[in-house]
């Protein structure tokens, strides 16, 4: 029986749309690229599913669950606002603003356009010992990865000593979403990319609105200009 639902890889769905639009017998380069990315994404998901590291199952499952609704980032923002002085307060406000903008972009237009189904964890071989609750929203991009990256980049840009630990934490969150089977790797990469761009933009806007001479100017990569 042929399913009426859209293909799981978002890349393949957009390749199908391109094929319908141009109507040529031979696929275009863009179509071939999108289908290759879809196969790569599914292959990477299977590779993570086949990893056998039982000691990671519990910790990464807890990380994935704890980051629902950006709880750790709001906790860090609260600590910074209360005990971080002027710089900490600025970082907290910037980080929360970055999460808000990122959440809107990811959970509204991007997920609606992506229309990607969540992975079938059982079919694709993710052990049940890793499973967390499967969200009801569409899969592309990963909101958890996006919010984590947005907070890490925006706060790290304001408080440089937090840059490395926050980015490591954001990477762990993104990997946990693939490891527990609720996202394809492409979802996490796209979410983290969007979040990082929004985080840097939010930080840049904050510096423009209220310049702080004690902070170095930075580039989108996080380093000084």
Features:
225 residues; mainly alpha; Vanadium-containing Chloroperoxidase, domain 2; 8 helices; globular; disordered N terminus
Largest sheet: none
How many DSSP H or I helices? 8
| CATH architecture tag of the largest domain | Orthogonal Bundle
Number of domains: 2
Helicity range: 55-70%
Q: CATH first level of the largest domain: which class?
A: Mainly Alpha
Report strand %.
under 5%
Derived structural class: mainly alpha
Query: What is the element string, with H for helices and E for strands?
Result: HHHHHHHH
Instruction: Kindly state the number of beta strands.
Output: 0
Query: Could you say which overall geometry the principal axes of the C-alpha atoms support?
Result: globular
- Gyration radius over CA: 19 Å
Mean pLDDT over the residues: 86
Low-confidence stretches: 1-7
CATH topology of the largest domain: Vanadium-containing Chloroperoxidase, domain 2
């Amino acid at each position: 029986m042929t399913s009426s639902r859209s293909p799981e890889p978002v890349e393949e769905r957009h390749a199908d749309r391109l094929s319908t639009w141009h109507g040529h017998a031979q696929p275009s380069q863009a179509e071939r690229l999108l289908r290759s990315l879809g196969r790569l994404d599914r292959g990477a998901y299977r590779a993570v599913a086949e990893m056998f590291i039982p000691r990671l199952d519990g910790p990464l499952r807890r990380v994935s669950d704890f980051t629902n609704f950006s709880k750790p980032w709001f906790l860090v923002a609260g600590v910074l606002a209360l005990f971080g002085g002027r710089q900490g307060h600025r970082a907290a406000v910037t980080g929360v603003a970055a999460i808000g903008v990122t959440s809107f972009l990811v959970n509204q237009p991007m997920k609606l356009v992506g229309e990607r189904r969540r992975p079938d964890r059982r079919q694709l071989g993710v052990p049940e010992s890793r499973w967390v609750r499967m969200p009801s929203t569409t899969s592309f991009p990963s909101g958890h990865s996006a919010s984590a990256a947005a907070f890490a980049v925006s706060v790290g840009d304001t408080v440089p000593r937090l840059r490395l630990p926050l980015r490591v934490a954001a990477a762990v969150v993104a990997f946990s979403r693939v490891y527990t089977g609720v996202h394809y790797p492409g979802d996490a990469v796209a979410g983290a990319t969007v979040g990082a761009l929004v985080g840097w933009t939010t930080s840049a806007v904050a510096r423009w609105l209220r310049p702080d001479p004690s902070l170095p100017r930075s580039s989108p990569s996080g380093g000084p200009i």
